[in-house]
Design brief:
Helices cover about 0% and strands about 65% of the residues. A hairpin with a 2-residue loop joins strand 2 and strand 3. The radius of gyration is 12 Å and the shape is elongated.
Length: about 80
């Protein structure tokens, strides 16, 4: 089974400067700046990120379906 790295690059500001991050519906942790998730198995993933301050003006939610078959960077607020 091949494995790849996923980097979440969070360039958001304000209430989205830190986001809660989920893979396939499971809470993985928070991301502020960038965070590496190494060695994920090749396959399809449902990614979700959400600002840690819900209810604040400008609060954002992000989602992406990803076929992980190479090292990948997901940039929020590019």
């Amino acid at each position: 089974m091949r494995r790849f790295d996923l980097i979440i690059q969070n360039q958001c500001s304000g209430p989205n400067q830190t986001v809660f991050f989920y893979i396939n519906g499971e809470f993985i942790g928070t991301v502020r700046g960038s965070r590496l998730f190494p060695g994920l198995r090749e396959g399809r993933y449902e990614l979700r990120a959400e600002g840690t301050q819900p209810g604040q003006p400008g609060h954002l939610r992000f989602s992406r379906s990803l076929m992980l078959d190479k090292d990948t960077v997901w940039t929020l607020c590019p």
